[in-house]
């Protein structure tokens, strides 16, 4: 056993030496790597992930399977989540009792989270219209429409199950992830149409809004990475499944590039615009269009960072919200993940400096004092949760930010544990829904 463990560790170190993706500072000088089938090297198969670093994932898997102590606790916490996902789902847009305006249940439907009725519901006025907005205060009635909640549960389950299979090799995890994906995206009887025309509708006002695209964009890149991992040879994941997901992704990307809702969302200047770019760039990379992905990330330098990041690193468009810490860290999830996509296509978003001197590193550093308990958060916040910043600080630390590196040991532990070693891409950790 000791010889096998040593062999795995040496093999992982060999892979690091020969294949590890260049540092962020050097990556801008590299040519984009084409998407496609996973590469094999030193006996390893490198997953063609779009946010996660495929080489890092392959190395980590070997270290986990070698029993390196640092991974034991996060693996146990991770498996607990994945085990729960083995007995939930599968989910489908066909589950909802309501019909979208199209009268087609295959269309995704969700209701705007911060809009509330002003009168009691009656037979003549079943929604209690007109509606008014209460920023940051979520209307629980939106959960009566099941697509939003089930979409979130499915995204989380697929990602947890896939990563659990990747690290442990247990086929049950992969088979369940495949079933969940097949049910939501591929099976003709249960699949979702690849469009978001009816997201975050407001009763008696609009049938759908571009702002609702964030229902998907905040987490859909997890699905793209999960599919890339499954495509390295997961049991239960078939060529037909892969082809079905590729077709869905291409059609969804076309919808994002041509629909009015998508155009409205792309024009957003705050976190919604950041997540739109992140999702579009990831889809471009996943569907074999690295040049398009690169163009989106490069454009984000002026379109997103110049507009959003102040000289001191603050995000003024998010700091003005009633949930300013949540929305600051939420926007940083999108921007840091976009920077990770940029590393796949030779764009160094981490070190880009705005005309005012703002950088992505400064934006993360701005939330560090509150996240580590060294200073109070002095902006409006209805429910301050320091752990919301944990993943973005980890991401900046890995990219070379000294302040973030020094802060890692002082970060609070998120609910469910700090899973960064096994899931090294930022996630929205605080439980607010419908951002």
From TrEMBL:
Keyword Signal tagged: yes
Listed SUPFAM superfamilies: Chondroitin AC/alginate lyase
InterPro entries, A to Z: Alginate_lyase_dom (IPR008397), Chondroitin_lyas (IPR008929)
Keyword Zinc: no
Entry GO MF terms: lyase activity
UniProt KW keywords: Lyase, Signal
Alginate lyase domain: residues covered: 92-377
Signal peptide: 1-28
The protein, known as: Alginate lyase family protein
Organism for this UniProt entry: Catenulispora pinistramenti
